[in-house]
Prior knowledge:
Oligomer: single chain
Radius of gyration: 15 Å
Number of strands: 0
Number of helices: 5
Strand content: under 5%
Shape: elongated
Amino acid sequence: RTLDELREVMQEDYLGLLKTYLRHAPTRLDGARTAIETDDVAALVIPVHSLKSSSANVGAMVVSALAKEAERLAREGEFDAAKKVFAQIETDFVRAQRALREHLSEHEGG
């Protein structure tokens, strides 16, 4: 499991990484949402690129893979397809967020 590997490598620092992700990922989602609402395909690339990397770092691999696809589509100018993928990102982020919060509550302080 990715979180177990992360904990082994980073020791206690991995909890900080999870907290940072949970704090910053919603901002990236907001940035992508704003780009979509304003039909700004170029502005979509940066937040989904960031989500791709940061999600992979914390083991949210579905979110990471979807963000990678949204980034590719945005770079290729396939805005409608990128918007559809972003809708999936939002759904899967909620799942990842819930799982990471549960993990944090189980491992903090012990």
